[in-house]
Amino acid sequence: MQQLYDTQPINPPSRAILVGVKLRNALMHETEESLQELRQLTETAGIEVVCETIQPRNVPNPTYFIGEGKVEELKGVAAELEADAIIFDEELTPAQTRNIENMLEIATVDRTGLILQVFAQRALTSEARLQVTLAQLEYALPRLTRMWTHLSRLATSGGSGSGALRGPGETQLEMDRRWVRRQISQVKKALETVEKRRQLQRQNRTEKNKVSLVGYTNAGKSTLFNTLTGENVLAEDKLFATLDSTTRRVSLPDNQTILLSDTVGFIKKLPHQLVAAFKATLEEVTQADLLLHVVDISHPEAEAQIAAVDKVLTELDASDIPMVVVFNKIDQLETEDQFHILKTRYPNAIPISAQRGDGISELTEKLAEHFVSHSVTLDLSIPYTDGKTLDMLYKHGTVLETEYVAAAVHVKARLPSRYLKSVSQFAVQDT
What we know:
The chain is α/β, with parallel strands linked by helices and 431 residues long. The protein contains 16 helices and 14 strands. The strands form 3 sheets. Strands 6-7-5-8-9-10 form a 6-stranded mixed beta sheet, sandwiched between helices. Strand 8, helix 12 (302-315) and strand 9 form a beta-alpha-beta unit. Helix 5 runs antiparallel to helix 8.
């Protein structure tokens, strides 16, 4: 495969001004909370925040998103604070971005671009890098006139040969666009291979109960995954610590086994480029038999985060999958008020501390109860010559009683309904 476009900027900004916009139908506290999350994203990207500002507007300005007077004000603030970037808590059009950059003469980044940048920094595996590269390139394509002039340098030095293919009268911008489109095509082909491999892996797991962890970024999914599996998956107190899906076997009470998958965290205003690029990873969610929705109950905007996760699940056509809500980080609650309010709205939610291990036994019992309720109790008469079926019962079900008679073993067992077809010929009585 030819060299891929490096999605990391050559000279990333180091000091940024954050800009939020309160539109007519928005509440100020929601705008402030979103700007606080933008600060976390900015700091996760390694950029120092030197100033924050919010401008109330009825509707976005089509030229600058914010007002022209506000842009002039920010020009002076940027010069005084030596800021080299301005970051908006909204998605800007390519034209708005160019207009603001021309006025301020510093890099202008919107929320989508910043999220993509954080993903690019935290992508550790080849699959995650491919997915982030695709999202970055598709985001960059309509914005090539500003920050992507190093494409031509990379193209001529990196072996893609786009410089040699420049046609008569073709501008540098046209050449860059053609180069990016070719890179997008290459990455998509590579991701098709990844998707086929994941589909094969899922086919090999069809005889297992599949559970996927979902939740807002930094809700504690990876910590819970480690607690339930005994693994040591990276679990940091940072946004988007996990980009890759990891699946492990977990034993539950009543001799049950599930396959548990940790997945990428969601966020408000999740860029559609990321949802599309991470299709193969997010299919772990859509193919699950049960979702564990992990909520940071200590977060002041926990309810809004629940709504954001539900919105993404709807976009993924996964909202009909059975779900168990888990209130995590109960050890970090400053007051009980929010817990009681949300517990009223989600009465079946299970309070836990994945870090301390509080409530984990109750959670595993709840999971076991769920899959028991989706099982059938059978009386079977299995010939001694069919040891394979007996092994299957012990492996995938719960053997309740056994009686050895002359020609066969009489077994009473509880078995997930997916296995009924394979044992139906041995059924004595279906209870």
